[in-house]
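Dear Dr. V.,

Thank you for agreeing to look over these. As mentioned in my earlier message, I'm a first-year student in the group and I'm still getting used to reading structure tokens, so any feedback on how I've presented them would be very welcome. I ran two proteins. I've put each sequence directly above its structure. The first is here:
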Amino acid sequence: MTKYTEEVREIRKLAREYIPKLLKKSSYSSKEIINNVQKKFPKNCDDSVLCNCQVSKNRPEWKHQILWAIQDCKSKKQLEYNKPTKKYQLKI
């Protein structure tokens, strides 16, 4: 049995595809990325499904999935984190 429903996992998939497109326009912090993904896919951002991990209890799970999508994109070398600005940008 999987930990998350298909609906919850769908936002991670959508975010993985959308984040590189979003970063073509500008650099964004993780919070700004979350807000942009929510605007783009509001039906996939269900606040009633809460995260059950130790670090972020009571945070909606969809936000956690978007943070994972950011890490997925980083591991694929699609984007990088700029420490001084605290923003993600496309990897050149």
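The second protein is here, in the same arrangement:
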Amino acid sequence: MLDAFSSSFLVLAYLAAALFHLAIGLGATLADYFQVNSPTGRLSFSRRALSLGLFFVFMAIVGHYLAQLGLFTPILDAAGNAVVNWVLVAIATAQALIANTSKNIKQKRLWAGPTVAMLLAAVIVAF
């Protein structure tokens, strides 16, 4: 039960993060929330491309957790699924460290809490 709740939370959290990065990648003026301060609020092309790449990574993570919930057909066996779950714990750890040690106050206010919750949920799913 807790495993299913954690997976559902991770689906919603990574979907929100993916949509945030899609908006940035398409040119939304949200640079203040993405590790850099820009007078125009827009990012350079390379930062926007990075954000679009993160969109696709986060959507793949959403697909993984949806497969764990039984909404998609899993492509991994149990051992592969366990390995991927622990890799996702490592990714969530990196996200939490980046968000909570950022010097950008807006980024920290937006992502500090959700990334810690995502880390805890990822650990629950991995166990």
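From my reading of the second output: Residues 21 and 115 are 15 Å apart (CA to CA). The two ends are 13 Å apart (CA to CA). Does that match how you would interpret it?

Kind regards,
E.
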